[in-house]
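[agent] plan:
  1. take the single chain provided in the ticket
  2. run structure prediction with default settings
  3. attach structure tokens to the ticket
  4. add a short note for the reviewer (M.T.)
[agent] executing step 1
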Amino acid sequence: MSMTVSLTQYSVIKLSGVDATSFLQGQVSCDVTKLTDANWLAGSHCNAKGKMWSTFIAKKLTMHFI
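[agent] step 2 finished; step 3 output follows
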């Protein structure tokens, strides 16, 4: 039996480019330099005073093109 569930409360944001990791590192609470293709990290995005604006799960995806 298969089932489909709508997850409309979730979004996906894609960051790419040579400076993506360093940009994201300065914006979020987790150490994104530790992301690999085999793991994920939970974190939050906070304002300058430390108030949390959002939470997320980060995953590194390496695309291989032929």
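[agent] step 4 note for reviewer: The two ends are 36 Å apart (CA to CA).
[agent] ticket updated
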